[in-house]
From TrEMBL:
Keywords: Oxidoreductase. GO terms for molecular function: oxidoreductase activity. Gene3D superfamilies: Heme oxygenase-like. Coiled coil: none annotated. It comes from the Bacteria. InterPro entries: Haem_Oase-like_multi-hlx, PqqC-like. It comes from Rhodococcus koreensis. This is Pyrroloquinoline-quinone synthase.
C-alpha cells in the first residue's frame, strides 16, 4: 500500500500533478498572450467562461455542505472563498460581463447557456459532479488546487497584451487584475486544506488524481476555445 506522504513531499506532488498540463500553455492562451486574437474571440471566451466560473460559488457551496462541522478551518476557508466570489466589493461575474461588453457581445448572450460550446458544458458538469460527490478534501484539491490556483499564472501572461496590444482600458480589464491577486490567496487556501486534511494514503492519492484531472480539464477547455473559435477563422483567412 502507498505510504502517507510528508507535508512537503505531498505539496510537491500536488504541484507536479499540474505541471505539463497548465492552461497557460494551451493554444488559446498562447494566441492571446502573443497578440494574435481579435475582440470577437474574447467575446466568445467570455460567453464560455461565464458558465465555468459563474457557478464557482455553487461548487464551493457543495463542498461546504459536504465538510463535517468538526473541520472548522476548512469550512471557514471555503465560506470566505464563496463570499469573495459573490459579495465582496463587486460580484466577479459582473466584472466578466463588463469585459464581455467591451468585446462587443451582450449581457444576454453571456448569460445564455446555449452560447457555450460542448467542452465548456463538460467542464461545468465535471465541476458540479466533483463538488457534489467527492470527499470535501478531494473536491477542494480538484477545483481549488487543480483549477483555481492556475489563474494568476494564466492572467499574468494575458493582461499585458490586453492593455498594450488590444487597447482595453483598466476599467474594462478589472476582472483579470482582481483575479491575479485574489486567486493567489484562494489557491493557497486550497493547498492548505488539502495538506491539512488529506490524512490517509488513499485520500492523498485521490487528491493527486483529481488535481491532474482538473488540470487536464482546464487545458482541454482552453484548447477547445481555440479549436472552436480561432482555428476556423485562420482556415478562412488562408483559403
Amino acid at each position: 500500500m502507498t505510504e502517507l506522504l510528508g507535508r512537503d513531499e505531498f505539496r510537491t506532488a500536488l504541484e507536479n500533478a499540474i505541471k505539463g498540463r497548465e492552461a497557460k500553455n494551451a493554444s488559446f492562451s498562447k494566441a492571446w498572450a502573443e497578440g494574435k486574437l481579435e475582440k470577437h474571440h474574447f467575446a466568445r471566451w467570455a460567453e464560455n467562461h461565464y458558465h465555468y466560473v459563474g457557478p464557482f460559488a455553487d461548487y464551493l457551496a457543495n463542498i461546504y455542505s459536504n465538510t463535517p462541522d468538526t473541520f472548522t478551518n476548512a469550512k471557514d476557508f471555503t465560506l470566505q472563498n464563496m463570499y469573495e466570489e459573490e459579495l465582496a466589493d463587486i460580484r466577479h461575474t459582473d466584472l466578466l460581463i463588463k469585459f464581455a461588453e467591451a468585446c462587443g457581445t451582450t449581457k444576454e448572450r453571456v448569460e445564455d447557456p446555449s452560447n457555450m460550446n460542448a467542452i465548456t458544458r463538460g467542464l461545468q458538469s465535471w465541476c458540479y459532479a466533483v463538488s457534489q460527490r467527492e470527499h470535501f478534501v478531494v473536491a477542494t484539491a480538484a477545483l481549488v488546487v487543480g483549477l483555481e490556483s492556475q489563474v494568476p499564472s494564466i492572467y499574468k501572461k494575458q493582461i499585458v497584451p490586453l492593455r498594450e496590444v488590444y487597447g482595453f482600458t483598466e476599467d474594462e480589464i478589472e476582472f483579470f487584475d482582481l483575479h491575479i491577486t485574489s486567486d493567489v490567496v484562494h489557491g493557497e487556501r486550497g493547498y492548505q486544506i488539502v495538506l491539512d486534511h488529506a490524512d490517509t494514503p488513499q485520500l492523498q492519492q485521490r487528491c493527486l488524481q483529481l488535481v491532474q484531472w482538473g488540470a487536464e480539464m482546464r487545458f482541454s477547455y482552453t484548447k477547445g476555445l481555440y479549436d472552436t473559435y480561432v482555428a476556423p477563422d485562420l482556415t478562412l483567412a488562408t483559403a
